[in-house]
Every structure is written in C-alpha cells, then in structure tokens.
Design a protein that fits this description.
CATH topology of the largest domain: D-Maltodextrin-Binding Protein, domain 2
Mean pLDDT: 91
Distance between the termini: 47 Å
InterPro entries: Ferric-bd (IPR026045)
Shape: globular
Order of helices and strands: EEHEHEHEEHHEHEHEEHHHH
Number of strands: 10
Pfam family, one: SBP_bac_6
Strand content: 15-25%
Structural class: alpha/beta
Largest sheet: 10 strands, mixed
Keywords: Signal
Helix content: 25-40%
CATH superfamily of the largest domain: Periplasmic binding protein-like II
Protein name: Putative binding protein component of ABC iron transporter
Length: 333
C-alpha cells in the first residue's frame, strides 16, 4: 500500500534502493491507485512513498520543495499534473535526461528536447457553457478570446492565470501571439470576466448558472456534465485561422542525483504506459491519452476530431519569473 505521510521522517530512516519517493501534483485520489498498482506489479518488493500538496498552489508548493532540496534531493520522481513548472526544473538542470519507453512518433511537444521529462494523459482547456443561460448552440462562445468580448461582460468566468493550467495556457499564448499583446489581452479579460480562484470554481459557477460560461479544464468540466448539470463542453478555436485547443499533459521526470534512481526509472516507465493512460481516461477526470496504443476513448471528447494547438512548452517557460510578475501586477489590481 502506498505510504502516505512517510515524507515526515525523510532523512531519519534510510530507505532501500527498491523504494521510490514520489512528489505528485496529480490529485491523491487519482494517483494513489496507480502507484499502488505499480507496487503490486513489480517482482521486487517496492514501497512508493508519496507526497501530495494542497489544491490550487500544489504544483508550486512541490516545486519549491524540490528547489529547497536541490543540494540533497529527497524526491526521486516528480509527477506533475501540468507541464510548465516541470520545464522550469528542466531549465534549472535539476532533472535527469533519459530514454523513455514510449512508442516511435511520440508528439514532440509531449517529450523534452533533452529527454528530461515526458508528457502523457492530458487535459484540454475548454469552454464550459450553461445551457439554461445560453440555449442556442449557435450562440455559444467558440474562442478563448471571447473572454474579451463586451457582450459577455460580467457573464463569463476564468481562473486567475497565476497557477496551474491557466498560468500555463497564457504562457503558451504569449509565445504564440507575442508578449505585449498577451498582456494586453489579459488586462481586457480581467476587466470583462469574473475572475475566480481556480478552474474548479469556474466550472462550479457555470454549473450553478452564476456565470453563463467560463474557461476551465476538461477534468473539471466533465464532472459537472456527469452530474447532469445543464452544461455543454466546447473545444475552442477550431476554425482554420485559429490556433486550436490547448492540451496540457501530466508530466513525469526523474530528479538528478536522486536517492533511488533504479526504482524511479521503473516507476517512470509504468506511469507513462498506455495502461496508465487508459486508467486515467476511464476515471472521473476523463484524461486524454497521448499514446496511440491506448484503448479507451475518454468520454469528454466530442464526436468530431479536435484540432490541437501546436505548442513549444520549453519556449513558454522562458523568463517565467518576469512573466509571472507582470501577470500578477494585472490581477492584483
């Protein structure tokens, strides 16, 4: 069974090479069954010691812990439920490049240029619409840029773009559309939309009808749809002259100079396997497999194919501290 809370005694009790320490930003309820399954699957007895963190800022908290421990790493494997902060660790030289056990033709935006991380089991950035408030599908918003449309002033919602997938989304758009134009657009969105603390809060506001629509993630959107709420999920920016829908993967990486690299490598390959992607696709969050060998189509996908945004996550993470400070200045006013 996955040992929770054992991180409190790190440094006091030596651990064998068969053990592996995981810092996971994926919710405990989703990550723990997979880590437990890995323990059962290996011939050599292996104990997975897991550290989870609080909602909304959990990725930042875990990254800060890794940074604090950089001289003597405790974490062997970082399982991030997004990508940008994993790339930050890559750029700081804290991740171990390796060859990943993935199929040939793995999407280039889903694996590090130096092999230091691998992306899998993505979420998409989608528009969730309250169908009681917007009854005609012809009137649904179809683009992220509709958050600036004055006809939706006070009726649309977004999360503060300072953490998680929303922060990643606009860092990607900065690379796509330019630095200043994206800052200008964020300022317009802040003035036009209701800004909430997180994507979950956006989905709940739309579900309750306090917002007509909002920008959120597929895992939060599908929960409201599964509950039978009056909502519809729109994959935005699908026209030929638009950028496509952004998908943001889970990412997994081994820490450089970690205490248990052998066990961590075995777990890393298990986590990015089609079996794990299928498990996440079938689960409550309906995550989107990257592998073509995955067998289970997530129920959140529409009937028609989705055109995905072409992304360079490594470029999006450049000058992150400066960018984050500029975004904070907009959203702290």
């Amino acid at each position: 069974m996955t040992t929770l809370g054992a991180f409190l005694v790190f440094g006091c009790v030596p651990r064998s090479e068969s053990d592996v320490v995981v810092y996971s930003a994926l919710d405990e309820e989703f990550a723990t069954p997979i880590l437990d399954a890995f323990e059962r699957s290996v011939e050599q007895e292996t104990v997975v010691v897991s550290k989870f963190d609080v909602e909304s800022t959990k990725t930042v908290g875990l990254v800060n812990r890794i940074l604090a421990e950089r001289e003597k790493p405790v974490c062997d494997l970082f399982w991030n439920n997004e990508i940008l902060h994993t790339v930050r660790l890559q750029k700081l030289g804290l991740l171990q490049p390796r060859s990943w056990a993935v199929e040939q033709g793995w999407p280039s935006d889903m694996i590090a240029s130096d092999g230091s991380w691998c992306g899998f089991a993505a979420r998409a950035r989608v528009i969730l619409v309250n169908t009681d408030r917007i009854t005609d599908p012809a009137d649904y918003p179809r683009s992220v840029s509709d958050l600036t449309d004055k006809k939706w002033k006070g009726q649309c919602a977004m999360a503060r773009p300072l953490f998680g997938t929303t922060a990643t989304h606009f860092a990607v758009l900065r690379e796509l559309n330019g630095h200043q134009p994206t800052l200008d657009q964020l300022g317009q969105m802040k003035d036009n939309a209701v800004v909430l603390s997180g994507n979950k809060q956006v989905a709940l506001a739309v579900s309750a009808g306090t917002a007509a629509w909002g920008l959120t993630d597929t895992d939060d959107a599908i929960i409201e749809q599964d509950l039978g709420r009056p909502v519809a999920i729109v994959f935005p920016d699908q026209l030929p002259d638009q950028s496509g829908t952004l998908r943001i993967p889970n990412s997994v990486a081994l820490l450089k100079n970690s205490p248990h690299p052998v066990a961590a490598a075995r777990l890393a390959d298990y986590v990015v396997s089609p079996k794990t992607e299928d498990r996440l696709a079938m689960g409550e969050s309906s995550q989107l497999p990257v592998s073509r060998a995955a067998k289970f189509p997530p129920r959140v996908l529409p009937d028609q194919p989705v055109r995905w945004m072409q992304v360079d996550f490594e470029a999006a993470a450049e000058n992150w501290d400066q960018w984050a400070a500029e975004v904070l200045e907009i959203f702290s006013l």
